[in-house]
Amino acid sequence: MPYYELMKPRIVYLLDFTALIAFLVAVPSINLLRLVAVLVAGTLASGGAGAFKSYVDRDLDRVMGEPVGDHIPQGEISPTRALLFGLSHRHKRSYFALFLPLLAGFFIILGAAIYVLFYTKYLKPRTTLNIVLGGFAGSCAPLAGWAAATGELTA
User: What's 92's DSSP letter?
Assistant: First the structure.
């Protein structure tokens, strides 16, 4: 259970839901292979990003005493194991991305990168606007869903 919680499952489910809805709205007929691929690749990317974020924020979370369920500061998962767990998701999602248009894969990777690098490393320690500006990472999931369904991004 600690590894599952390390992936920030509530965030993952929300991102999967928005990707699913965008996919379903984008096209009249569903390509089941692409739908499964975008959901699995997105789950692995966002789950891996959540684990990596926990690794990056381990010292800050220890000082702040938050959040409940973060198992690195509590000593239930070692920082090295959390890092390896997060990084292992990167390779797994690559297999599923083979079934997706390049644009969909780009948005999946972009969302994870923004969450870990921009939000966690830059915004969170510097500004209270972090959640507003970091929300762009969350917008990548529906963009990936749309791109997976259509192969393009239109206005």
Answer: H
Q: Which amino acid is at 35?
A: L
Structure tokens at 99: 């079934």
Number of neighbouring beta carbons within 10 Å of residue 25: 11
Q: What does pTM read for this prediction?
A: 0.86
**Buried/exposed 91-109: b ≥16 CB within 10 Å, e otherwise:** ebbeebbebbbebbbbbbb
Radius of gyration (Cα) for the chain, nearest Å?
Answer: 16
Six-digit token pair at 85? 């767990």
Cis omega (within 30 of 0) for bond into 79 = no
- Which domains can be identified in the chain, with CATH numbers? 2-150 (1.10.357.140)
Residues listed for the chain: 155
pLDDT in tens, 20-73: 999 999 999 999 999 999 999 999 999 988 888 888 877 666 655 555 556 676
Q: Are 135 and 118 in contact (CB under 8 A)?
A: no
